[in-house]
Design a protein that fits this description.
The chain has 13 helices and twelve strands. The protein is of the alpha/beta class. It has three domains: 53 residues, lambda repressor-like DNA-binding domains (434 Repressor (Amino-terminal Domain)); 136 residues, Response regulator (Rossmann fold), CATH 3.40.50.2300; 128 residues, Rossmann fold (3-Layer(aba) Sandwich), CATH 3.40.50.2300. The strands form three sheets. It has a six-stranded parallel β-sheet, with helices on both faces. Strands 7-6-8-9 form a four-stranded parallel β-sheet, sandwiched between helices. The model has no long low-confidence stretch (mean pLDDT 91).
Length: 331
């Protein structure tokens, strides 16, 4: 039995059944008792759609994530779902992959589910060409769009980002003032965070008169072997004594590269990671990394969402969270 059957048996509208389910006072006691009796007799459990009919809200938030096997993204999704649940919201998760067309299709699909809002998790949803982000702006014309660790300007779009530029600048500055002569940056893709990190490293190198050009960026394929191969190729075109990595997984793979090449870490090669994941705590030597506050970012994103849906006029459209350098033994 569903909500339509309940309404038919009670000879009332679907909206009336939904109001009873949601505890609305706009139903006569006799009608309420009749509907509750039918629900009890048929052991009916209302679903989110039924509850939403009378509230104008599904109390459901769509979450789009490129890849839940990514340590950072999986942790972010975990904290988002946990905070949404505590705030009385259900969540729908869709793993989109990295292809722009697939991301657009997934966002359209989520909109068709009548969710109250959607959260885009990670910097991979931001295209370098701003006009390519119009699909996000179009979605925001229908429901609020929240971006975690990515920023697009537009009405009804709310962003929570880590200050990747500043912490990358500070980390490069620390390395350059303690012995590094040439920095290589290992990246996986050209995401919003990647571009901000590169900008920070480039400015720190410029301050110290150290060259940092496109040759000092290694594009790494998926897997440890892909990282090792990218670093080997980079070593043939430029000399480097330090590898700053986009995340801890790349940094752990760089440690494997050093081992394979017979390079001592940190005396011959210094390596840093990013994300402060569990990998940074189990490598030998322990990784120097960046705590980009994924739990705080997730909590802040949900807090902004809750206030936005409550029509709070003081909601900030862009919240920036500072990150910390966590010193290990790899630098």
């Amino acid at each position: 039995m569903n909500i339509y059957d309940i309404a038919k048996a009670a000879n009332v509208s679907i909206a009336t059944v939904s109001r009873v389910i949601n505890g609305s006072g706009k139903v006569s006691p006799a009608t309420r008792d009749k509907i509750l009796r039918i629900i009890q007799e048929n052991d009916y459990t209302p679903n989110a759609f039924a509850r939403g009919l009378g509230m104008g809200s599904m109390r459901t938030v769509g979450i789009l994530c490129a890849n839940t096997s990514d340590l950072y993204l999986s942790e972010a999704v975990f904290h988002l779902e946990n905070n949404l649940r505590k705030s009385g919201f259900n969540s729908l998760l869709c793993c989109t992959g990295y292809d722009r067309g697939e991301k657009e299709n997934a966002l359209r699909l989520m909109l068709s589910k009548s969710v109250d809002a959607v959260i885009l998790v990670g910097s991979n949803y931001i295209e370098s060409e701003d006009s390519a982000n119009d699909y996000i702006r179009r979605a925001a014309q229908q429901i609020p769009v929240f971006m975690m660790n990515g920023a697009v300007k537009g009405e009804n779009i709310y962003c929570v980002t880590c200050d990747d530029y500043t912490v990358s600048y500070e980390l490069a500055e620390m390395l350059l003032t303690t012995g590094s002569k040439s920095i290589l940056f290992a990246q996986r893709n050209n995401s919003y965070s990647t571009r901000r990190m590169i900008a920070g490293i480039r400015d720190a190198c410029a301050k110290h008169g150290v060259t940092f050009s496109g040759e000092h960026i290694a594009n790494c394929e998926v897997g440890v072997a892909g990282v090792i191969r990218a670093l080997q190729e980079a070593s043939r075109r430029v000399k480097f004594d330090t590898v700053m990595c986009f995340n801890d997984l790349l940094a752990a793979s760089a440690l494997k590269y050093a081992q394979q090449e017979g390079l001592s870490v940190p005396s011959q090669l210094r390596i840093s990671g990013y994300d402060y994941s569990v990998l940074s705590l189990i490598t030998t030597p322990l990784l120097t990394t960046v705590d980009n506050k994924v739990e705080l970012m997730s909590q802040t994103t949900v807090n902004v969402l809750v206030h936005c849906l409550a029509k709070d006029l003081l909601v900030s459209q862009h919240t920036v969270i500072s990150a910390n350098i966590v010193k290990g033994h790899s630098t």
